[in-house]
Amino acid sequence: MKILGVSGSPIKNSNTDRAVKTVLEATGAETEFIKLSEFQIEPCRACLGCVDTNQCVIGDDRNMLAEKAKQADGLVVGGYTPYSSIDGRTKAFLERLYPLRHKHGFMSGKSGVAVVTCAIPEDC
Ligand SMILES: Cc1cc2nc3c(=O)[nH]c(=O)nc-3n(C[C@H](O)[C@H](O)[C@H](O)COP(=O)(O)O)c2cc1C
Predict the structure, then answer these.
(1) Any idea where the domains of the chain sit in the sequence?
(2) pTM higher than 0.85 for the full model?
């Protein structure tokens, strides 16, 4: 059993990193942690080039990262919330998992956890 954790925060040892790592440790399984800011992963181009092949046509680090997600038994995705929305790296990563769907549904049946950090003022 192997669980993959990803963090969209670019900050070293950030809140999101530590929250994702806490979840990974709690699984008791073999884990791998990935910081998306250390890789090149652009947003989906919506070209639908993956529909027949399950392969993305963009030649960045997505294919390597998606292969890790495909091989893992579970996925922990951690994002933070700049300007009240999920951060761009996490969004791009999730968009780019689209080729794992279509004909085969490679993530079907796997466990998934979403981790989101934020800073809501106490007087809200
Ligand atoms: C540029 C920027 C904008 C932010 N905007 C929001 C926001 O709109 N709402 C919110 O709840 N937190 C906001 N935050 C706070 C972060 O979501 C929060 O500190 C988060 O834990 C940061 O994650 P990190 O430590 O993993 O980088 C913002 C942080 C930054 C750097």
Answers:
(1) 2-113
(2) yes
Within 13 Å of residue 52, how many CA atoms lie on the same side as its CB?
A: 2
For residue 68 the two structure tokens come to: 């890790």
18-64 tens-digit pLDDT:
999 999 999 999 999 999 999 999 999 999 999 988 899 999 999 99
Which residues, including other chains, have CB under 8 Å from residue 123's CB and lie 6 or more apart?
none
- Stated as kind and residue range, the H or E segment containing 47 is none
For ligand 1, pick from 18, 80, 89, 116 the residue to mutate: most ligand atoms within 8 Å of CB: 80
Tell the CATH topology of 2-113: Rossmann fold (3.40.50)
pLDDT tens digits for range 47-60: 999 998 889 999 99
Pocket around ligand 1 at a 6 A CB cut-off: 9, 11, 14-16, 80-84, 117-120
**Which amino acid appears at position 35 of this protein?**
K
The CA distance from 103 to 42, in Å, is 23
Pick from 67, 66, 47: which is nearest to 57 by CA?
47
